[in-house]
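The material for today's practical consists of a large collection of protein records. There is nothing in a record beyond a sequence line and a structure line. As an example, a complete record with its sequence and its structure tokens follows:
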Amino acid sequence: MIQIETEGPGDVPARERLLDACFGRARWFKTCQRIRRDRLPAAGLSFVAREDGRVVGTVRLWHIEAGSAGSALLLGPLAVDPARQSAGIGGALMRHALAEAAKLGHPAVLLVGDAPYYARFGFTPALTTDLDMPGPVQRERFLGVELVQGALTGAQGLVKATGALALPKRRAA
């Protein structure tokens, strides 16, 4: 049975292994990663899916400014253990993350991903037409969903990171 829980500090190593298995080293060079770099995820919006105590899925949301629309969230990466894909884990993580973001009053979520997959959660490229990422993305994969009706209406400009900065790790003296 799959359980979705808030990610804890002890989940980070398993999460990183899962992301490496799903995306490899290329994940470090994507435009979305540049936005997330040196930032903390949005409070209360990092989740893991567990099966028999093992992390089999993960998703995080990050604070951003969506151009003229103002505050929003950036979702990603969403990853599911390759051996457990097509079992509904990604969908369950998405529904949970979006519901929690809405409960916390966030107005909109953006992501870069597979449009046919994310359309079932309400994501569309029509909401990001006049928004730009700070690096290369395939326009048809740059998607948005409104958690508050009209939150992205007329949005234009550059997407920027706004979340809290992560503290640098201290080196042993």
About this structure: The first strand starts at residue 2 and ends at 6.
